[in-house]
TrEMBL record:
Native source species: Chitinophaga tropicalis
Entry-linked InterPro entries: ATPase_NBD, Gcp-like_dom, KAE1/TsaD, Peptidase_M22_CS, TsaD
Matches recorded under PROSITE patterns: GLYCOPROTEASE
Protein's UniProt name: tRNA N6-adenosine threonylcarbamoyltransferase
Binding annotation for Fe cation: H111, H115, D303
SUPFAM superfamilies (alphabetical): Actin-like ATPase domain
Annotated NCBIfam families: gcp_kae1, T6A_TsaD_YgjD
One example of a Gene Ontology biological process annotation: tRNA threonylcarbamoyladenosine modification
Annotated compartments: Cytoplasm
Annotated gene: tsaD
Segments forming domain Gcp-like: 25-309
């Protein structure tokens, strides 16, 4: 009999459910919350309420699409941390209730570990040791993986995350939240070398993005004094130049990490790995440095439950189960 796992992701503003059978994703359903757009960022209280409304239909859709009945499930997985506590509570309480009602095991998953393991969905899987650059709205990490559940953060941001750098730059340009995908869109038409933004000199494998944000702010203020329409008239070139700098900061540290560890299995993960400039750069650098490169499918880059399901599959095989007393927000094993 095959092992079937239902996984739930509710750490931020996406309610998602996925069904996996023996390591293969059968369904991955994501409900996006559009309510936050008007506020320029995720409002935690509204996110929790939207999760409450979405969770039952999303789980039903994921089971239906997979053709799996509740009583066929072998385990229920949920995102334990990190995330917004009210959002995590909805997913964790739902998962616990379902595991209790069906009398099957519960699996608690670390959201950042799951982003990394999104690279292990499908046939083209990295081998170990593997280096992953995880870039999301809340985190920027270089993770060394010696096994699917054996991970260590070897570099991380000292201030803003890469996704925040995209979103805050977009805000300075008057673009709506979340601005990352919009910068990507405008950048496609622009010249990445037209404006030069500084690259911070941070020792080791850590990152910093707050200086970039400040330099963009001063640059725009200066240019707008000369031409009030500067931003509107140069949107594509500004976006391409900002994206170019964020991508070069990320890639230069990844090259350094590969040289220091001798690892050439290299992947990216997290919401920012949906960025076309970063995807292209990974392929180019990979060719230049002789890396085997990995990028999750687009739908597995931003928050989704399929990555929770694949992590739960490894945990199921390792016998790593959680009790009903598992506390959301607390650090789950990374
Ligand atoms: O992993 P994710 O979906 O949620 C978190 O766990 O944070 O990442 C969301 C972040 C946001 O900052 C969003 O602007 C960014 O990923 N993002 C992008 C793109 N798509 C999503 N940034 C740049 N280019 C994109 N195409
Ligand atoms: Zn995420």
């Amino acid at each position: 009999m095959s092992v079937k796992i239902l996984a739930i992701e509710s750490s931020c503003d996406e309610t998602s459910a996925s069904v996996l059978a023996d390591g293969v994703i059968l369904s991955n359903y994501i409900a996006n919350q559009t309510v936050h757009e008007q506020y320029g960022g995720v409002v935690p209280e509204l996110a929790s309420r939207a999760h409450q409304e979405n969770i039952v239909p999303v789980v039903d859709l994921a089971l239906h699409k997979a053709g799996v009945r509740k009583n066929e499930l072998s385990a229920i997985a949920f995102t334990q941390s990190p995330g917004l506590i009210g959002s995590l509570l909805v997913g964790s309480c739902f998962a616990k209730s379902m595991a209790l009602a069906l009398n099957i095991p519960l699996i608690a998953v670390h959201h950042m570990q799951a982003h990394v393991l999104a690279n292990f969905i499908g046939e083209h899987k990295p081998s170990f040791p593997f280096l992953c650059l995880t870039v999301s709205g809340g985190h920027t990490q270089i993770v060394r993986c010696d096994g699917p559940l054996d991970m260590k953060v070897i570099g991380e941001t000292l201030d803003d995350a890469a996704g925040e750098a995209f979103d805050k730059s977009a805000k300075l340009l008057g673009l709506p939240y979340p601005g990352g995908p919009l910068i990507d869109k405008y950048a496609a038409e622009g010249d990445p070398n037209r404006f030069k933004f500084p690259e911070p000199q941070i020792p080791g494998l850590n990152f910093s993005f707050s200086g970039l944000k400040t330099s963009i702010l001063y640059f725009l203020q200066e240019q707008r004094e000369k031409d009030p329409q500067f931003t509107e008239n140069n949107m594509a070139d500004i976006c391409a130049s900002v994206q170019h700098r964020i991508v070069s900061i990320l890639m230069n540290k990844l090259v350094k990490a590969s040289k220091e560890t001798g690892i050439r299995e290299i992947g990216i993960a997290g919401g920012v790995s949906a960025n076309s400039g970063l995807r292209k750069a990974l392929q180019e650098y990979g060719k230049k440095h002789g890396w085997n490169t990995y990028i999750p499918k687009f739908e597995y880059c931003t928050d989704n439950a399929a990555m929770i399901a694949i992590t739960a599959w490894y945990k199921y095989q390792a016998g790593e189960f959680a009790g009903l007393d598992a506390v959301p927000g607390a650090r789950a094993g990374f």
